[in-house]
Design goal:
The protein has eleven helices and 20 strands. By secondary structure, it is of the alpha/beta class. The longest helix has 24 residues. Helices cover about 30% and strands about 25% of the residues.
């Protein structure tokens, strides 16, 4: 408990520095403090943050540059959010912020059992204004590990790089791994004999709420003897929650983030409770945030992990508040739909389309390759959906080429597995 107390003291000091910093430099928070008549000296610990209102995605979008605390001439890197549910928001990083990213990611790699002896293969973009790609490269460099920057897709190049450079860890969107294995099997590549020992999975959950592997996680590990580590992060927080070897939730770095998980009323949930993730970013120079509501729903755990770490942990993202679907009287989050589709080995590509009917009710359509459009397959899939979710979406079949084009758009940084129209 001594280490936990030291962490709390360090975090409290960083929080007081943050409050003083934004009071001097952030036009947005200066106005918030004035409007709410905040006594800045009263905010001395994470508990005291409850005096402040939440910061929302709408606030960021509407007053983007008002959050900037330094002249733009001091900005070293310009990035944007992924814009999953709305237009991308700009984020500005100073040299100090980039160094903070490096520190975060090197600690995240270590949490996932990484070391300077590892070679990482990056299967995500490092360009297109993507903060995470830069963070991964900086983190490996900070830790003294090697990095192969292959980028997304391109199974041939991925395997050529694996065979040429012998990476030990892949950094990838997990739904790409089955495609990688299918390519290996079709081309006579002995992936079981490769140098790869683990995969750091980003952007998609690989576990259920009880920490067991979900269908995508089971699909990967049933084919390939690799260790999976889940991560959860966002551009706004400029930090990551990363799993340790225990696989019991992503650990927060208390020197970089103050974590809150709150219910609909904005009150903190207890041990194991489900709520919206709220973060306050510590040590950020360009665009620090206070009580930022991510929109992501996770279970939170405050008890010490069996790995020995005492930091709070987050379970997998159950869903996003903005992505909650009410379909035929049933509340569904997209990951539940993905989980059903990932159970079926024949399904290599899919896209889930959410729309409104003429009565304003949610409709769900799953786009699948046309070669799967036989009556027996459709009946099997409808039955599977009903057994798992109680309802079944509309199935629509298009050519694999068109579906690939819809999912893997050149201008996007991640596969478009889910779209709203």
């Amino acid at each position: 408990m001594k280490s936990e107390s030291l962490n709390n003291n360090s975090q409290n000091e960083k929080l007081k520095e943050l409050i003083s910093y934004v009071a001097k430099h952030s036009p947005y928070y200066q106005e918030i403090f004035r409007e709410n008549e905040i006594d800045l000296t009263s905010i001395r610990s994470a508990v005291d943050l409850a005096q402040l209102p939440f910061t929302t995605k709408d606030d960021l979008a509407k007053q983007n540059d008002a959050f900037l605390c330094v002249p733009k001439s001091n900005i070293a890197d310009f990035v944007t959010t992924s814009g999953t549910m709305s237009d991308p928001v700009a984020f500005y990083l100073t040299d100090a912020d980039i160094e903070r990213l490096a520190n975060n990611e090197s600690e995240s790699f270590r949490c996932a059992d990484g070391s300077s002896n590892d070679i990482y293969q990056l299967m995500t973009t490092i360009d297109k204004r993507f903060m995470a790609g830069l963070a991964y490269w900086m983190g490996a460099r900070k830790m003294g590990a090697g990095m192969i920057r292959v980028g997304p897709g391109a199974p041939f190049l991925q395997w050529e790089s694996i065979q040429r450079f012998s990476p030990t860890v892949l950094i990838a969107i997990p739904s790409f791994i089955p495609r990688l294995l299918d390519y290996a099997e079709a081309n006579g590549i002995d992936f079981a004999a490769s140098s790869v020992k683990s995969v750091i999975c980003i952007g998609e959950p690989i576990r259920n709420a009880d920490f067991t592997l979900n269908e995508l996680g089971k699909r990967i590990t049933s084919q390939w003897n690799v260790k999976l580590y889940s991560t959860y992060a966002s551009t706004e927080m400029g930090a990551a929650f990363t799993e340790c070897s225990e696989g019991k939730g992503g650990h927060v770095n208390p020197d970089l983030l103050v974590l809150e998980v709150v219910d609909e009323a904005g009150d903190a949930v207890g041990e194991g409770g489900l709520g919206e993730v709220v973060v306050t970013t510590l040590g950020v120079e360009g665009m620090p945030l206070l009580r930022y509501k991510t929109g992501d729903l996770c279970n939170v755990y405050y008890t010490a992990c069996s790995c020995g770490r005492t930091s709070a942990r987050l379970g997998p993202v159950v869903g996003r508040k903005q992505q909650m679907i009410k379909f035929k009287g049933t509340t569904i989050f997209p990951p539940a739909i993905f989980d059903v589709l990932d159970m079926v080995k024949e399904i290599e590509l899919y896209q889930v389309v959410i729309s409104k009917n003429e009565y304003g009710n949610d409709e769900i359509t799953v786009l699948l390759p046309i070669q799967l459009s036989n009556p027996a397959f459709k009946e099997m899939l409808h039955s599977l959906f009903k057994s798992r979710l109680r309802v079944s979406p509309l199935l629509e079949f298009i050519t694999a080429q068109e579906l690939t084009f819809r999912i893997y758009k050149q201008e996007k940084r991640k596969p478009d597995k889910l779209i709203y129209i």
